[in-house]
Every structure is written in structure tokens, then in C-alpha cells.
Amino acid sequence: MPNYEEYIMQTPGGLIVYFIPSIVAAVRMHDNWIAICALNFILGWTGIGWISALIWAIHKPERA
Fold first, then answer.
1. Sign of the dihedral through C-alpha 17, 18, 19, 25
2. What is the mean pLDDT of residues 26-55?
3. What is the rounded distance in angstroms from the CA atom of residue 32 to the CA atom of residue 55?
């Protein structure tokens, strides 16, 4: 019989790791945080999409 307590404890941690790019964009008040969240949600599972979203969230364009 599977131990469901482990799954219950691991799910929030996994979701936090998955949405790190979205969290970073929101905390840094990135101009395109909605697009970053969408990219993270849709393509974050690929790895390349997750890394792209993280780089985009970290890079903040200079304001003129």
C-alpha cells in the first residue's frame, strides 16, 4: 500500500520549485511577469522552458 503522506508532503515543495521563475518575476516586479508566468506554466515542464523563464525573470530591462 503506497504511503500517501509522502506525496502530500512533497507536492507543495515540488510546486514551489516548479514556479520559482514566476515567483522571482513577481518579487522583482518585472514588467512582463504575466508572460513569464504563462511561459513557466505552459512550458516549464520541458526544462528548457523553465530555464528560459528563469533567465527572463532574472534579467530586468533597463528603464529609459
1. positive
2. 95
3. 13
Buried b (16+ CB within 10 A) or exposed e, 10-32: eeeeeeeeebebbebbeeeebee
Predicted confidence at residue 33, as pLDDT, reads: 93
DSSP 1-61: ---HHHHHHHHHHHHHHHTHHHHHHHHTT-TTHHHHHHHHHHHGGGSHHHHHHHHHHH--P
pLDDT for residue 40: 96
pLDDT range class, residue 64, cuts 50, 70, 90:
low
